[in-house]
Structure formats: C-alpha cells, structure tokens
Specification:
Helix content: 25-40%
Shape: globular
CATH architecture of the largest domain: Alpha-Beta Complex
Radius of gyration: 21 Å
CATH class of the largest domain: Alpha Beta
Number of strands: 11
Structural class: alpha/beta
C-alpha cells in the first residue's frame, strides 16, 4: 500500500505484471536525475518525487522560488511515448511550488511574459506571466486519463494554499511565501482566462506546490485520495473479503494520518468489510491514537523504549517484528 507519496511506484512494482521504466530527467533545480516509473500494458504510475522531489535537493540548496516540475512532465511524456493512456501521478514529497508550470512546459505549453519571452523555471517567475500558449501542448493528453493521487485537500492559493502551508518545508521564508502565493494567483488568473474556467479552489489543487492544479485544469485530471486510489488499483477490497484482521502501518501515526494517509484509507475499506484493524507506527501520538480508536483501529507504536532517530530507522525491521509478535500473541490468546 501507499498513499501517493514516496513508495507508491514500489507498491506497483511488487506486482508481477508491472515493470520499471527508467529515464534521465531534469531535477527540481535543473540537475539531471534518474527517475523510475511503473508501467504495465495500459497503465503507468508516476511518482513526482522521483523527478521533482524534496529529497533530491540538499537542505542547503532548497529553493521554493526556482524549483520546477519540468522533470515530472518529462515522465508523463515518457509514459505517453510508451503507449500508455491511463496515468496515475503520485504527488507527495515535492520540492516545488510552481503550480505545475514546469510540467506543462515539458509537455509543450509556453508560458510567456509581456514581451512574449518564455518564463524561467520556478514559481516566482509566474508573477510575470502574461499569457499561456497551448498551441504545442501534447495532443495525447486529450485522450489520456490522468488521476492525481494526493493526501491533502488544500486549494491552490490563500491561507490554506500550497505556498502558505507547504512552502516553508521547501525552504520558503515568510517573504517567499507571500511572493509565491501572489505568483500562483497570477498563474490561476491567466489559466482561467486561457481555459474559460477556474480550478484554483478545487480540493487538492494545492498538492505538490500546485502540480495537482495544473493536471486538473489542463489535462482534466481527477484528484483523489492517494490511499484509496492505490487500494482500488491494487485490489485491496477483494483481499479483505475473507479476512478476520488487517495489519497496516506507517512511519508516524499522527494528525496527518487523520487527513487521509495510508492507515485511514486501509481502515475505511476494512471497516466496510467488517475486518478489525491494527496499525503499527514508528511513533503514535496520543491525539491520533484516540481518534483512531473511535474508528475501531488499534494503533501500536513499535518503539518500546528511549531511542535516537538514527537507531530507530536502522532497527525498524526488528522493532516491527517484536511489536507484531506481541500483537499476534494477544490475538491468539
């Protein structure tokens, strides 16, 4: 399972009919990076983080003003080149705040200023956007079905928008946040003028620094909770039918879990099937534990004593095995 963040491609590569396809693409700050997506005969799953992700940029180099989703657009083009017309884009873990402008540029759109010069990469440049030329936008997008796997419901702009909520973790200062929010507002305005409709307030449009907005507006993509989308494609509903108990988990079971991450998505399907759920977490906050208990989910922390973070990561398999053994003994008893 996965929820649209890192590991989503791996969830599909674990299946026998899926294979990995690798490309060298433009990273968030223009450096070449090696990115992998999953593909079967008719479908592809792309992780934007593999091309435009925060982990690709050293902390000292993170630059939300300049980071671009161009490489993600290159992966979409690669999937289309492979004959795929059903594409899932997992948008967790982004380094970008460009509203998906880079992705559109990689697929042939031209974002121009008042002098018809193409804008440089990054979200800040969108403040000078005058018009969007879609003459050479990849026509194959019209026949493609694109789904965006997101785990947030934030709009593109405003106090709950991409810049305000997620910009700081990508290196944006308070001044940068204001700059980026104004630039994305300009992008939304020009997009609405170009397309004749406005999707800036769509739930989830702010995911991945607004990448979800661009897919929804320019490729008619649907934005869906990542955990439920992955569960649907992986066949989790069918797997639950004869089960008595379901085990799931994630690194940190906290307030974000309650917003639609893996544990909550799995639990919703299990509840419909009448299956009990145990969720293991590297840590479990008191608030999340109480809220999950109200939903019939038992949250179990795997760390059983004081432990520094590096050791917790390195010992995770052993810690999970020990916690699972204790739970299994209780179930059997």
């Amino acid at each position: 399972m996965a929820d649209g963040g890192e590991g989503t491609v791996d969830a599909f590569l674990a299946l026998p009919t899926w294979r990995a396809s690798e490309r060298i693409v433009r990273g968030p700050l223009g450096d070449p990076v090696r990115a992998v997506f999953a593909i079967d005969q008719t479908r592809a799953v792309i992780e934007m983080a593999s091309a435009s992700g925060l982990e690709l940029v050293a902390a000292a180099r993170r630059d939300a003003l300049r980071a671009s989703t161009y490489g993600t657009g290159e992966l979409v083009a690669a999937a289309l080149d492979a004959g795929v017309r059903d594409i899932v884009v997992a948008v967790g873990g982004s380094a970008t705040n460009d509203g998906g402008a880079g992705m559109l540029a990689a697929l042939g759109a031209r974002l121009l200023d008042d002098w018809d010069r193409e804008l440089e990469p990054g979200g800040a440049a969108l403040a000078r956007l005058a018009r969007i030329d879609l003459t050479h936008l990849d026509v194959r997008l019209r026949d493609a079905t694109i789904s965006v796997a997101a785990d947030v419901d934030h709009p593109l702009v405003g106090p709950r928008g991409a810049s305000a909520i997620f910009g700081p973790q990508k290196g944006a200062s308070p001044d940068d946040v204001r700059t980026l929010d104004a630039a994305l507002t300009r992008f939304a305005d020009v997009s609405a003028q170009t397309l004749g409709f406005d999707k800036r307030d769509l739930a989830g449009a702010g995911a991945a620094g607004g990448l979800a907005f661009a897919f929804a507006a320019f490729a008619d993509a649907r934005i869906a909770p990542g955990a439920l989308l992955v569960a649907e494609m992986r066949g989790l509903h069918a797997a639950m039918r004869d089960a008595e108990i379901c085990f799931t988990g994630e690194g940190s079971i906290d307030e974000q879990t309650l917003g639609g991450k893996t544990v909550l998505g799995v639990a919703a399907i299990a509840r419909d099937a009448g299956v009990r759920v145990v969720a293991f977490g590297g840590r479990v906050t008191a608030g999340a534990e109480a809220s999950l208990a109200e939903r019939g989910i038992v949250a179990v922390p795997i760390v059983d004593g004081p432990l520094d973070l590096a050791r917790a990561f390195s010992d995770a398999p052993m810690l999970l095995e020990r916690a699972a053994r204790r739970v299994a003994l209780l179930v059997l008893a």
